[in-house]
Write a structure and sequence with these properties.
Blueprint (H helix, E strand, L loop, with lengths): L1 H19 L2 H9 L3 H10 L9 E6 L6 E6 L3 E6 L21 E2 L2 E2 L5 E9 L2 E11 L4 E6 L5 E6 L18 E5 L4 E2 L14 E2 L2 E6 L5 E7 L5 E7 L7 E7 L8 H4 L5 E8 H9 L4 E13 L4 E13 L1 H4 L3 E7 L2 E6 L5 E6 L5 E5 H9 L3 E5 L2 E4 L1 H4 E5 L6 E6 L4 E6 L4 E6 L5 E6 L4 E5 L12 E6 L16 E6 L6 E7 L7 E5 L29 E5 L2 E9 L2 E3 L2 E6 L3 E8 L8 E5 L7 E3 L4 E6 L5 E6 L12 E7 L8 E3 L4
Parallel strand pairs: 14-19, 37-40, 39-45
Antiparallel strand pairs: 1-2, 1-35, 2-3, 4-5, 6-7, 7-8, 8-9, 9-18, 10-13, 11-12, 13-14, 15-16, 16-17, 17-20, 18-19, 21-22, 22-23, 23-26, 24-25, 27-28, 28-29, 29-30, 31-32, 32-33, 33-34, 36-37, 37-38, 39-46, 40-43, 41-42, 41-44, 44-45
The structure holds sulfanyl-(tricuprio-$l^{4}-sulfanyl)copper and dinuclear copper ion.
Dinuclear copper ion binds next to loops.
Length: 655
């Protein structure tokens, strides 16, 4: 969304002021202050010891991670590291998790995460996994909602700017990835000016197994437009996927002008069921690709990274009747499908109107071959024939839409800074509420499913300004919680978010809470270098590598006195937490380590590497206040000179 910020910030202030003159806004401002405010407070108040009603998984944008919030309180419950190293837990620093950040470009310690989506069964969120895309070095991650840890990351080859991702079909058959920046496919050295007609926009369909494992099934070789956002069909339109495009001009420079020439870009309608059949019958062509597939195994507590080298390319024109373009005005951004699957909305970010297509009309138009032309061999449907309706004058700069399951839709308007409620079918605007300020995405728990839980809506706002105590030039972004159970939306709460929240996914706590793991069982620990009891602890030398098999339990390390290590050694501390109680992690940190601490959950084994540079006696300690004697949870490593003869010796209380 940074792109909009830049383009639109010039007009932002004046437009915002115009918007603020609106009567509706004034009255709502009044209703959220004074006497009404105490009522709002009650409705978001979660008493000490009580739990929230919903989980909200909010993307961390340029933090690369995913944050977990409770709704309605807006309390942040956890930050889950996904695409970025996370010193708090050692994710991406520990030997076990470093492979998660491996890519065909090598180890990448950072990512830009945008759109989380929760797995579904029969069109309902099922609470098994959250998927989230990485925009910069295209990847999709899968996070377990039993452990709230990232279990799998797959890189998307031949893609650039993985933005129209990671949305799932209604039985989690597929999660998709689409390229926002068209690129040579496959990549090659060529003049940039020759982009037009030569760059491509591959759309990747990743099959998800019953165990959650992802596998690239096929890659659709699409024209070189920018594929911005996407949504799966549901109900009758299950089997289709819809992608908004912009820059159908195929401009390679000064896109803020050159990619806004066409009055209409497209929504690409992809019949993935048809392509799946085609592929299952041997269709498509295997081409070379290079991409990492990283999997974390909860029994070994260890990730592995495998380099893959083939992908199946499908030319949509060879499948027949599989892909169509629906003209959609003004560089559409959001692409949203209502819970019934009949309506497909595309929000032209430079317009005031919203365009909604009808799935059944689209099918009619396809049957009637009601085309107005073609783009690179793909039929372009007649705009008037697929149009279901237009929401007129909703606001300025529409971006994203969610649904409440009661026949209403809610669209964010970035420039006029508001959330607008409108009715599906009649297209009338029912309500509008200001957002503070410049809202991007919004989220209703289950809003991407057949059965939204339409009680609350959160807006995720790009600009914070005066909403909180100032914290210097850099402010956290802000979310706002609205009650949408009544006819009018009511603003209840502001809360800060972390990174840049592009999108979020929400679900009833009941669907997740009962499955949440409390400990890792020691008797299931298959880590290759675990010490499952203090009797197993030891030190082993292998050339310059020294392996320390260590355990933690309240409140000591075993061993806690280590000798025989030399300058120039590489020391691997394999630390197993022997605790089997909920919420008793131990930490491990050692002076001069060039990485991070480890935070080890009960029953888990993690490894940190330490390269001692100086002779001496160096302490290590537990970083997590685990007991009354936490401060005593420490030990010493003696480091001798390169050529010393001090033998390896490890002890605890002299033994
Ligand atoms: Cu509109 Cu990346 Cu979904 Cu930001 S994107 S808002
Ligand atoms: Cu273990 Cu503090």
């Amino acid at each position: 969304m940074k792109h909009f910020k830049f383009i639109l910030s010039i007009t932002f202030l004046s437009l915002l002021m115009v918007g603020c003159g609106d009567d509706d806004r004034k009255s709502s401002n009044r209703s959220s202050s004074g006497a009404m405010a105490s009522n709002a407070a009650e409705r978001v108040y979660v008493a000490p010891g009580e739990h929230d009603e919903f989980y909200a998984f909010i993307s961390g944008g340029y933090s690369g991670n995913l944050t977990v919030y409770g709704l309605p309180s807006g309390r942040m419950l956890k930050e889950i590291p996904v695409f970025s190293q996370f010193p708090t837990s050692g994710y991406g620093y520990s030997e076990e998790t470093r492979p998660m950040l491996n890519t065909s470009f090598g180890f990448i310690p950072w990512g830009d995460s945008h759109h989380p989506d929760i797995s579904q069964t029969n069109g309902d969120t099922d609470g098994r996994w959250v998927f989230i895309n990485e925009n910069n070095t295209p990847r999709i991650a899968r996070i377990s909602l039993e452990t709230f840890e990232t279990e799998e990351i797959i890189e998307i080859p031949h893609s650039a700017g993985n933005h129209s991702s990671s949305f799932v079909t209604e039985n989690t058959e597929y999660v998709v990835a689409g390229t926002r920046f068209s690129v040579p496919y496959p990549q090659k050295d060529m003049p940039i000016e020759e982009m037009k007609g030569n760059f491509k926009g591959p759309l990747t369909f990743i099959a998800v197994g019953d165990d959650g494992r992802m596998k690239i099934d096929f890659q659709l070789d699409m024209p070189g437009f920018n594929y911005d956002l996407s949504h799966p069909g549901r109900g009758d339109s299950h089997g289709w996927f819809f992608f908004t495009t912009y820059n159908t001009e195929e401009a390679h420079t000064m896109q803020e002008v050159n990619a806004s020439q066409n009055d209409k870009d497209f929504i690409a309608a992809v019949n993935w069921k048809k392509i799946q059949e085609y592929v299952q019958n041997g269709g498509g062509e295997e081409i070379d690709a290079e991409y990492a597939h990283n999997v974390y195994d909860h029994s070994t507590h260890t990730a592995t990274s495998t380099m893959m080298n083939k992908v199946l390319r499908v030319d949509p024109r060879e499948v027949g009747d599989a892909v169509f373009f629906m003209p959609t005005p003004k560089s559409p951004h959001g692409c949203d499908v209502d819970p019934s699957g009949e309506y497909i909305g595309g929000n032209g970010k430079l317009s005031t109107d919203l365009t909604v297509h009808s799935f059944s009309k689209m099918i009619q138009a396809i049957e009637n071959e009601d085309f107005t032309g073609e783009a690179y061999g793909i039929p372009v449907l007649n705009f008037d024939s697929t149009l279901a309706g237009t929401v007129k004058e909703g606001g300025l700069g529409p971006l994203h839409t969610e649904f409440d399951g009661k026949g209403n839709a809610y669209t964010t308007f970035f420039i006029s800074s508001e959330v607008v409620k409108w009715k599906l079918g009649t297209w009338e605007v029912l309500d509008r509420q200001p957002s503070y300020y410049s809202v991007g995405h919004l989220m209703i728990p289950g809003g991407n499913s057949r059965n939204p839980e339409g009680k609350y809506l959160i807006s995720m706002n790009k600009i914070t300004k005066d909403r909180y105590l100032p914290t210097g030039p850099e402010l956290e972004h802000s979310a706002q919680l609205y009650d949408i159970s009544g006819e009018k939306m009511e603003l209840l709460l502001d809360f800060p978010t972390h990174g840049e929240p592009h999108y979020a996914a929400g679900i009833s706590a009941d669907k997740v809470k009962p499955n949440s793991k409390k400990i890792y069982r020691l008797d299931e620990n298959k880590h290759a270098r675990a010490a499952l009891s203090e009797a197993d602890t030891r030190m082993e030398r292998d050339g310059n590598n020294v392996h320390v098999y260590m355990t933690t339990v309240r409140s000591h390390f075993a061993p806690d006195n280590l000798e025989g290590i030399k300058v120039g050694d590489k020391v691997f501390f394999h630390v197993t937490n022997l605790e089997q109680d909920f919420d008793v992690p131990h930490g491990f940190a050692i002076i001069g380590a060039n990485n991070s601490e480890l935070l080890i959950m009960p029953g888990q084994t993690k490894t940190t590497t330490w390269e001692p540079k100086k002779e001496g006696v160096w302490p290590f300690y537990c970083t997590d206040f685990c007991s009354a004697l936490h401060q005593e949870m420490q030990g010493y490593v003696r480091v001798s000179g390169k050529n010393s003869n001090v033998p390896l010796r490890w002890t605890l209380d002299g033994e």
